[in-house]
Amino acid sequence: MEALPLHPKLVHLPIALAVLMPLLTTGLLVAWWREWLPKRTWLLAVVAQALLFGTGVLAMRTGEADEDRVEHLVPESSIEAHEEAAEGFVWAAGVVVALTLLTLVLRDPKAARIAGVVTVAGTVAVLFLGYRVGNAGGELVYRHGAAAAYTNAAPQPGAGVRARRNRRVDDDDDHR
């Protein structure tokens, strides 16, 4: 078996951060409003969101590099759906980086709080977009068998669907 691709190793960090960011930004915003923590702690949100964006860019680039390897196994429309979802996710994450930074640098407390609320909403949107990317990627791997491109015996196109159908038949036999 050849070396496993880098893409599946990288994609988990931006997705995990997308799940955590709404919690982190909400907690920091509440702590800042209630004066439990100083505004400068919002820098944690800036750094975490920048990490999400950066690892998202890396994951997208490695996915593009793997595309040639799997395109003979999966429908082009599925690859395009995953790629478009990834682009939307990464661009939205970049916009939210700008919002987190804006929240940090605004001097007017009311404007900064409004920017913070918009940032929290943005992190929720990025979470939704991350779910779409993960779902589309999961379909490539589990429905269409894209991972087979990295095994010794790569199946024919559509093998992921046939294997799933065969498992259902086997599962039905177990219940008799």
Can you give me a brief rundown of this structure?
By secondary structure, this protein is mostly helical. 77% of the residues lie in helices and 0% in strands. The longest helix has 35 residues, at 109-143.
What can you see in these coordinates?
The chain is mainly α and 176 residues long. The protein has one domain. The protein has 6 helices and no strands. The protein has helices at residues 7-10, 12-33, 43-70, 76-105, 109-143, 159-174. It starts with 6 loop residues before the first helix and ends with a helix. The model is unreliable at 162-170 (pLDDT under 50).
Topology readout:
Layout: H1 7-10, H2 12-33, H3 43-70, H4 76-105, H5 109-143, H6 159-174
- Shape by Cα distribution: elongated
SS-based class? mainly alpha
User: What is the H/E order?
Assistant: HHHHHH
Total number of domains = 1
User: For the CA atoms, what is the radius of gyration?
Assistant: 20 Å
Q: Unreliable runs, pLDDT <50, ≥5 residues?
A: 162-170
Features:
mainly alpha; 176 residues; 6 helices; 0% strand
